[in-house]
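Here is the promised in-class demo. Please do not try to memorize the tokens; focus on the logic of going from shape to residues.
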């Protein structure tokens, strides 16, 4: 399995490819001496999550855009044969999934868990503190469509 480009920067770190990304980042942070409230911890956490997302899902700009949208639909249990990006986006707006779980499930080769409602997703996300950086999510059209208000 290919390594995340973020972890490749640290040759002494042995990444467990099927472990949750935040667990792996915490292990790396401990190894590097980054404390939770340090600027370096926060910057590297954000870079790690973005790099891992790109490692797992790639860039939508890199290839067939419709195929990327259809692939995400299929992985989330929707029809893989939706005929347009607009139809894919419309279907994906009704899906409630935690973005960090999406990354972790892809890393581990597990089926993605979805939630019955945006409120159930919000409750889970807040309880487990599983937040993907908002700025990065808004910058990527595949992730952006999955964003829900978390209160």
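The designed amino acids, position by position:
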């Amino acid at each position: 399995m290919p390594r995340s480009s973020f972890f490749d920067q640290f040759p002494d770190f042995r990444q467990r490819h099927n472990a949750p990304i935040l667990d792996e980042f915490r292990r790396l942070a401990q190894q590097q001496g980054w404390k939770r409230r340090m600027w370096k911890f926060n910057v590297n956490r954000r870079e790690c999550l973005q790099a891992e997302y790109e490692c797992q899902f790639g860039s939508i700009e890199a290839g067939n855009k419709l195929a990327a949208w259809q692939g995400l639909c299929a992985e989330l249990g929707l029809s893989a044969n939706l005929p347009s990006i607009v139809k894919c986006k419309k279907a994906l707006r009704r899906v409630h999934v935690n973005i960090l779980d999406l990354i972790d499930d892809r890393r581990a080769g597990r089926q993605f868990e979805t939630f019955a409602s945006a409120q159930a997703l919000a409750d889970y996300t807040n309880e487990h503190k599983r937040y993907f950086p908002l700025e990065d999510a808004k910058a990527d059209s595949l992730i952006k469509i999955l964003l829900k208000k978390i209160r």
